[in-house]
Amino acid sequence: MDSLNYKARAKINLGLDVCRRLENGYHEVKMIMQTVDIYDELILTKRQEPDIILIVNSVDDLGKPEDNLIYKAAKRMREHYGIAQGIEIRLKKNIPVAAGMAGGSTDAAGVMLAMNELFGLNRSKKELMTLALPLGADIPFCIMGGTALAEGIGEKLTPLPAPPCARLVVVKPPIMVPTGKVYQSLDLNGLKTHPDIDGMTAALADGDLDGIVRRMENVMETVTEMEFPIITDIKNMLTGNGALGAMMSGSGPSIFGVFTDTAMAEAAAQYVDRTLRQKEICAQIYVTTFYNDQE
């Protein structure tokens, strides 16, 4: 096999709590991470030349290839496992950029998983997750996929049961939210409530979608919504059009709403799109589902 196609799927947070700020500048978190069926498309092809070629098809400028997590992941795989051949990687970018959905991390994870298969390395996901951690805290989850409790800086992962089937409307407004700035602005002592992550874990075990949605909470919203009221507006549009609940993913700015009915989800997506366009705001909007089957 000389070439391999791979779908690198995005993630959302069903719940996100920040417990404390660590001395090294990182933050201790406790959150529920969930893969969704929005994906970037990767095509990896072996090369005889010992180099890494990255070709990107994206409406966004992703910077220099060597600064991209895809390139760094491929380089790490070649060096760690002594892969003599080079690799060409073609990326078609569908996941919104800088959206709180781990788009860069899942691309890196996809490259590592695909190279593992393409070069017949037969390494376990656990080994790849350990290898990936220095590149980014979200990459190990993206390698594992599915539903997980994430603790530590996000690297301590415990697999959880999949949530019940649901439709999701994901909206990424055209704003940029620097993750580091959100973390630094978060007033941990001023938080009035914390997400019930343990309760959500129990609701997942019970297959209780209502219980999951009731516990959706993200402490990052206390920072991002204050600076960007459009996030609150979109959440209200989603819940006002049939969503059981709506929440921001990660540090933002993407928002998702959970629906039990496909037609209602599609109608809500159309309503949000139409309403934002009337305000001359062009958002990226997706109707999708949770994803728990592993390729």
Domain unit count: 2
N- to C-terminal distance:
17 Å
Class based on secondary structure composition and strand pairing: alpha+beta
- Cα-based radius of gyration, to the nearest Å: 19 Å
The biggest beta sheet reads: 7 strands, mixed
Q: Give the helix level as a range of percent.
A: 25-40%
Average pLDDT taken over every residue: 94
Low-confidence runs (pLDDT<50, min 5 residues)? none
So what's the CATH class of the largest domain?
Answer: Alpha Beta
Number of strands: 11
Binned strand content:
25-35%
CATH fold description of the largest domain:
Ribosomal Protein S5, domain 2
Query: If classified by CATH, what would the architecture of the largest domain be?
Result: 2-Layer Sandwich
Give the overall silhouette.
globular
Number of helices: 10
Q: What order do the SSEs take from the amino end to the carboxyl end, as H and E?
A: EEEHEHHHEEEHHHEHHEEHE
How would you describe the overall organization of this protein?
- This protein is α+β, with helices and mostly antiparallel strands and 295 residues long.
- It has 2 domains: 3-159, 2-Layer Sandwich (Ribosomal Protein S5, domain 2), CATH 3.30.230; 167-289, 2-Layer Sandwich (Alpha-Beta Plaits).
- 34% of the residues lie in helices and 29% in strands.
- It is built from 10 helices and 11 strands.
- It has helices at 69-81, 103-118, 125-132, 139-144, 179-185, 197-206, 209-214, 221-227, 230-240, 262-278, and strands at 3-21, 27-47, 52-57, 86-92, 147-152, 156-159, 167-172, 217-218, 245-248, 255-259, 284-289.
- Strands 1, 2, 3, 4, 5, 6 and 8 form a 7-stranded mixed sheet that branches. A 4-stranded antiparallel sheet has the order 9-10-7-11, covered by helices on one side.
- α1 (69-81) packs parallel to α2.
- The longest helix is centred in the C-terminal third of the chain and has 17 residues, at 262-278.
- It starts with a strand and ends in a 6-residue tail after the last strand.
- The model has no long low-confidence stretch (mean pLDDT 94).
